[in-house]
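Why run this: before we spend reagent on co-expression, it is cheaper to look at a predicted model of the complex and decide which construct boundaries make sense. The entries below are exactly what would go into the expression plan.
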Amino acid sequence: MIDWLIEPFELGFQQRALMGGALAGVISAVVGTWLVLRGMSFFGDAFVHGVVPGIAAAVVLDVNPVLGAVVAAAVMVAGIELVNRQTALREDTAIGLLFVGMLALGVVIISSSNAYTGDLTAILFGDALGVTTGDLVGQAIAGVVVLAVSLVLYRPLLALCFDGRKAELLGLHPRRAHGVLLVMIAAAVIASYQSVGTLLVFGLLIGPPATAALVARTVRSMMALATAIALVSVWFGLVLSYHLGTAGSATMALVPIVVFFVTLFVTRVRAAWQRRSVRA
Amino acid sequence: MRFSPTPRSRPTTHASPSRKGGRRRALIGLGAATALLAAACGSDDGGAAGAADGAGGGGGGVTVVATTTMLGDVTGAIVECAGGQVTTLMSPGVDPHDFAASSAQVAELVRADLVVANGLGLEGALQNAMEGAEADGATVFEVAPLVDPIAYDDHDDHADDHSDDHSDEVAAGDEHDDHADDHADEHADEVAAGDEHDDHADDHAEGVAGDDHGEEVPVADDDHGDEGDHDHGDEDPHFWQDVARMATAVELIGAELAEVSNDPEAFVACGEQVAEDLRALDAEVRALLETVPEDQRVLITDHDAFGYLADAYGFEIAGVVVPGGSTQAAASSQELADLVEVVSAEGVSAIFSNATLSSSLVDALSAEVGDDVDVVELYVDSLGPEGSGADTYAGMMRTNAERIAAALGG
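The model came back. C-alpha cells follow.
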C-alpha cells in the first residue's frame, strides 16, 4: 500500500508535477476562500477562460504567454467594468458577455494561425508532466505575494466579503479591496496555468474552499482547511492518474469535487443523527 | 449572493459544534473519499511495462521506447534481430499530433536505454513531457531532423513564396555542400570587390549550412517548448511517407542503439538488414505508384502530411482540408470553398481522408464536390489496427500505395 502511494513520485518529472500542483493548490485555496465568500465563482470561471486568447495570441506572436495572459485579464476586467458602469445590466450578464467573447476570440486566434500545434486543451488542461523548474519558481513567487497580501489586507478583504457598506463606513475601501482580489485571482490563474491548466486552477479555487466552508467556523480555519484539502487532492489525483493511466490535471481537478460531495453527505447524515438523538 | 461559511442556514437544536469537531468531520469526509476512490481502483499497475532495467532478449539486450507506431514497428524489427525489447507509446489509430502520455509512460521514457522519437513537432502534446524526461536523464533520439527534412510548402497556386527561399532547404550533412556553396557564392558576391579572401566563401558556407539545422528540434526557447513556431518554412515531420527516408532513419536508429548496447556490431548489422528490406519496399511502392498516369498524379488529403510522398514518388499536392501540417487546425469556409474549386478545376477523381481520424470537413468536401469523386481512406500518422493489412509499417505503405493507385486510375 505504501509503495502504491509513493511509487508515482520516484522520478524528477513526477516530483515537479507534484510541486507544481501543490503550489497551485496553496495559492488557489487562499485566493479561492475569498472568492467563494465574496460569491464570485462565476467570475472566476469566466476569468480562467478569459485568459485563453491572450495566451494563444502570445504563442502566435512568439512573445511570453504570461504577458499575453496579463493583457487578456486586464481587457476582461475592463470590459466587465465598462458594461457595469454604462448599463443597467447586472454583473453576471457582463461577465457572461466577456466570458463567451474572450473564449471565442481565443479559438479564432488559434484557428487563424495555419500551423498552430498547440490547441485549446493544452491551455485549459495544462501539461502537469511537463512542468519545468522555471514554472515552479514563478509559481512560488506568486504564492508568496498572494499569501502576504491576504495577511496584510485580511481585515479589508473580510469586511468586503461580508458587508461592503459597513466596510465603507469603517473606512476600509471596499472598492480597493475588490481590485486587490481581482489581481490575486489573476495571479493565481496566470502563475499556475502552465503547470496544471486553467481549468484545474479553477477547480482548486472553488472545490477546496467550498468543502472547507461546509465544516469550518472561521475564515482562517476555512483557509487552512482548504489548503490541506487542495494539497491532498493534488497528491491523490497524481497517484490515481499514475495507476489508472488517466490525464494528470483532469484527475487532480476531479478529486476535490468528489471530496466536496462526500463531505456534504457525511455532514448531513451527522446532522440528522444528532437531531434524532436530541429528540430521543 | 452572500453566504456564510458555516452551514447554519437552518436552526439546529444542538449547540454549535466546537471548531475541533468541525475539523474532525472534515477529516472523516476526506478519509471516506479517499477510501472510496482507493476501493474503486484497487492496485493494478496501470498496464505500465514496469521494470525497464535490463533483461532484454538477446546478447545486446536494450530497452527502447518508440513514440509513434511507425517508429515502434521498424525499431521493433531491429531489436527483434539484435536482442532487447521495444515499447511503443502510441496505440494504432492514435493521432500523434495530440497524443498525451500518462505519468507511468513518461517514467518508461526516463528508464529506457533509448527513446526513439519523430521530432520536428510531430509529437505536439508530448513535447513538454519529453523535455521533462530528458531533464531527468532520458536519452531521446529524434529521427526526422536527421533525414534531410523538407520544408512545408504552400500548396496554393503560388508556390513561389518558397522558391526563392532556399535557406530552409539547406540541410545539415554532406549531400548538400553544393547548396551551401551556392549560398556561399551569393554571399561572396556581396563582398565588396577587390576584397580577395580565399576562405571567405567557406566561412559563409559554414555559416549558412549550420544556421538552422543542428540536431535540435526547432522549438522556441522562450515558450517552454509548448509549441514550436509553426510558420511557413518550418520542416515537415511526416518523413515516413517516403520509404527511402525511413530506410535511412532505420540505419541511424541501428547505429544509435549500438551506442547504448553491449553488442554494437549486432545492432549496426540489424539496422542495415532492416534498411535493406525497406529499400526493397521502396521499389515496390514506387512501382505501384508509377502506374498512375501523369495527369492524374494529384493528391488532396486531410492535412499536410504527404509532402514527402509527393516529393519522392512524383505527385503534386493540390490541397489539404485541414490547413497546415497538424491535425489540430481548423479550416475556414473560404479555404474549404477554394478547395472545392480546386477539385473541380483539377478534375481529380479522389480525395484522401485519414483512416484513423474521421473528419467532418472531408465529408463536407466530398458532399460538395458530388458523386464522381471518391473518398479514399489512407493511413497517415498511425498504423492501422490488427488485421487491417496496415498493422506494420510495410503493410501501411503498401496499402496506401495500392489505394492511391486504384483511386487515381493506376
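The two ends of chain A are 43 Å apart (CA to CA). Chain A touches chain B through 76 residues (CB under 8 Å). Bring this page to Monday's planning discussion.
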